[in-house]
Amino acid sequence: MTATRTNHGGAGIDPEMETAVVAHDWENDTSLSTTIVSTIADLSGRDPAELDRLYDRIDPDSLETIFEPANGSTHRNGGRVSFRLDAYSITVHASGTVVVTKAG
Q1: DSSP secondary structure letters along 31-87
Q2: Sheet of strand 80-85: strand arrangement
Q3: Helices 60-67 & 32-44, crossing angle to 10 degrees?
Q4: 7, 14, 31, 86: which is deepest, by most CB within 10 A?
């Protein structure tokens, strides 16, 4: 996961605005599910274990399979999936961008 508390090319976590935009790094060993849960935990200031379970909302393996690079190297160009987890709306884009906002 690439995320900072300041704005660098659109990536960042802003607890005051209750919004995060992070880029999942497909080259890293971190799963997409971990990127999502870690982002929500950072944004909410809570421990990941205190959050609703991701697999109660969406199948993490399927989410990973939909967006992981094809043939091990070609990044996906289109598509997105949106769902809610805990008090947040999450949108995962094929590019690896994950947008998390406080659900209204």
Answers
A1: -HHHHHHHHHHHHHT--GGGSPPGGGTS-HHHHHHHHSPBTTTBPP-S-EEEEEETT
A2: 12-14, 19-23, 97-102, 88-93, 80-85
A3: 110
A4: 86
Task: Kindly give, in sequence order, each residue whose CB lies less than 8 Å from that of residue 44, ignoring residues fewer than 6 positions away.
Answer: 15, 51, 86, 87, 88
Residue pointed to by tokens 């607890």: 15
pTM beyond 0.90, yes or no: no
Contact by Cβ (8 Å): 15, 43: yes
Question: Can you give the C-alpha Rg of the chain in angstroms?
Answer: 13
